[in-house]
Design goal:
nine-stranded mixed beta sheet; six-stranded mixed beta sheet; 17 helices; 34% helix
Length: 454
């Protein structure tokens, strides 16, 4: 990495600050910029370690600064078509992201996982598999999961493995990023407010294989039309998984067992009820993907199975919270789009009071509503999308809808509607922005409320 380049870090969140720290370590001249009009230079500087030599600028970048920038490191929340980014690109600045910057300092092997849904669970599971296989100090879990790549990359050696959850936003700004094993778990409509078209969103996901070759491995979902189609064009060797079809080669279901098919020959791997604690078809697929990734990384099968048998649900993803008054409460706050929320509903085995609504990412809710299939007793709606979702639900003949103006009102209403033997599921099919800083806070407050019930 050329440390002589004058670098602008655009965005002062967790990944931006991680980028600043790495660039400073490399001796680069750094400008930290944030366009938030409510943020002062002093507040921006307070985010940095005392004595930092970084130049802080907000909310406007001067003409002199713009013309002096050689490289821009974008935080994932900054669109690649942002007017300032376009201007800097036209001035000749190289545009990269935090993931690309981290990779430039990477010394070991990389596993990269993307997909509309299931990324966090699969990444966490694969991370645990690699830690068990290599040792706790030899494996790092990074990326969109909340741990900046730039905070860990300097710890890597030729013997370490970095397991990354990589979002579509992060994949827009890679150039040399090269995983040994990649995975695209699924692709369904999401973030169209940012990517504008489905074609652009799909292309961003496929970028995970941009630098892979036939010596590398890509794990793909055979049941998803986009990933199945991509398998025909993928530059890496493909391992498919399927929860719906018998494969000639790959991981699939045979009754209640996950099996490995090779040239039509079946090897039973594990029982989905006896050997895993996770619930729902979505998690069966996540486990299949993890098995395939571990195979690509040459992890002994018994090591992989040992980790899977002990692995519990990731926080905020179809997470059982408690049973109060005969009612089961589940936190699926990470169900931030309709397809993810469908998986939450499918995992429920009891009549369900469902909490939905939030920030509008220009999603369509028809398939989500259709997935209710008599299982959802009441739909309690909050946030910006509540009227849009209610209208869609009524078009599909679902009328048991209640509105809540606040989160507290919503949770109280759910408790009042739920009867002994029911479940309450927070699975909003929408992002949390506007009401909460992130989905984690939305889930945390839900769990606090449940724990407070007598």
């Amino acid at each position: 990495m050329n440390s002589k380049k004058k670098t602008l870090v655009f965005g002062s969140g967790i990944s931006g600050l991680g980028s600043v720290a790495l660039l400073q370590h490399m001796g680069a001249e750094v400008i930290l910029y944030d366009g938030n009009e409510n943020l002062s230079v002093d507040q921006l500087r307070q985010k940095l370690p005392e004595g930092s030599q970084v130049t802080c600028v907000c909310p406007t970048l001067s003409k002199e600064h713009k013309e002096s920038i050689d490289r821009v490191v974008l935080s994932p929340g900054v669109p690649v078509d942002h007017p300032l980014v376009n201007e800097l690109r036209e001035n000749g600045a190289e545009i990269i992201g935090e993931i690309e910057l981290g990779y430039l300092a990477e010394q070991g092997t990389v596993v990269a996982i993307t997909g509309t849904n299931g990324k966090t669970t699969t990444t966490t599971l694969v991370g645990e598999i690699m830690k068990t296989h290599l040792g706790m100090e030899q494996s790092f879990v990074v990326g969109n999961i909340g741990n900046p790549y730039t905070s860990e990359c300097l710890k890597t050696t030729a013997d370490t493995v970095s397991v990354g959850e990589i979002s579509s936003f992060q994949l827009e700004t890679i150039h040399r990023f090269h995983p040994k094993v990649s995975a695209i778990l699924n692709i369904t409509p999401d973030h169209l407010d940012r990517h504008h078209t489905m074609e652009a969103y799909v292309k961003a996901k496929e970028n995970i294989t941009l630098n892979q070759t036939a010596q590398d491995v890509c794990v793909l979902n055979y049941d998803n039309e986009y990933t199945k189609d991509f398998g025909e064009r993928c530059p890496a060797a493909v391992i498919y998984f399927s929860s719906a079809q018998k494969l000639q080669d790959g991981y699939c279901l045979a009754g209640d067992s996950i099996v490995r098919m090779r040239d039509g020959i079946t090897t039973e791997i594990m029982d989905i009820h006896r050997d895993m604690h996770l619930v729902g078809t979505c998690n069966v697929e996540n486990v299949m993907a993890a098995l395939a990734i571990a195979e690509g990384m040459k992890v002994p099968l018994e090591t992989t199975l040992g980790v899977i048998r002990e692995f519990r649900a990731v926080e905020h993803r179809i997470e059982y919270v408690d049973t109060k008054g005969g009612v089961d409460y589940y936190n699926d706050s990470k169900g931030t789009n309709p397809d993810a929320a469908i998986q939450g509903i499918r995992a429920m085995s009891k009549p369900t009071i469902l909490i939905g609504g939030g920030y509008d990412k220009q999603s369509q809710y028809d398939e989500w509503i259709e997935s209710f299939e008599g299982k959802v007793k009441w739909l309690v709606l909050i946030g910006q999308t509540r009227e849009k979702i209610a209208a869609c639900a009524r078009e599909h003949g679902f009328e048991n809808i209640r509105f809540a103006d606040t989160y507290e009102e919503c949770l109280t209403l759910c408790t009042e509607l739920a009867e002994d033997g029911d479940a309450v599921l927070l699975s909003p099919a929408c992002a949390s922005w506007g009401m909460f800083p992130n989905y984690e806070e939305r889930g945390r407050l839900f769990k606090e409320y449940v724990k407070s019930l007598t």
